[in-house]
Amino acid sequence: MAARRLVLDGSQLLGYARGLGLALPPGIVVGGSSAGGPPPGEALAVNLGVLARPVAAVRVEAGLGGRALRGWYALAGAFGASLFALPGDRAELSLFAAAETGRELLRAVPDEPASVLSVLNPAPVLTGTVPLDELREPDPAWFTWLPQDTTGPVARARAATHGTLSALVTGRAPNGGVLAGRVVWLRTGDRWTGMRPLPGRKVRFEPVEPADFPSWLAPALATILEASHG
Q: This protein's superkingdom (predicted)?
């Protein structure tokens, strides 16, 4: 099944969802009240149903080069669906086979054309393992009294980062609780750097490619989908 895509005005989309008794994920689509209209076709109704009642969901947020991206992926049975905010209070919906989720997730990675300067002088690869607590913003009341580390991985990451990509994977646990996993990438120089969680509350910086994004989400998605069958 080839992915079906549709672009709608945000108010129109929210009106269709309300007409079906569905609530779309908050913070993605912007729109006001919409006058009543004809009911949505079958394909659109299925698309909205998957988005509103997923077994597993991925909320994506990214910022790069002054551009912001907000998106939502949903999996339910044999179908997958996505919802992306577009300029002008519009939204793009997609409906696809669940088996194509990996291919569809690649659309969430922002593209930044390489500049001549970055090709001739590529930024150094960011690597290293750091304690998770070092990634938090320091308390300015006492941080100014401490020596500043300007050479470690965290300092280099802050200096080189000019974009981010984050994904929150969620689903229901068998006991009614919530299962969740998070993926965070940084745009450092002319490449992406992944932040891989490690035991002991540590994080490892790893160079990654856009094609790696689905594999970083796969463990959390697999855990949630397996739990849904239990």
A: Bacteria
Residue 139 CA to residue 47 CA, distance in Å, equals 45
What are phi and psi for residue 23, nearest 5 degrees?
-115, 120
Which tokens sit at 181? 């996993």
Q: At what angle do helices 10-19 and 42-52 cross, to 10 degrees?
A: 90
What whole-number distance in Å separates Cα of residue 111 and Cα of residue 69? 11
The answer, as to whether pTM is greater than 0.85, is: yes
Residue 185 CA to residue 196 CA, distance in Å, equals 9
CA-CA distance, 115 to 122, in Å (whole number)? 10
What percentage of the chain carries pLDDT values higher than 70?
A: 85
Say if CB 11 and CB 33 are below 8 A apart.
yes
Question: Could you tell me which of 125, 117, 129 has the C-alpha nearest to residue 208?
Answer: 125
d(Cα 160, Cα 167) in Å, to the nearest integer? 21
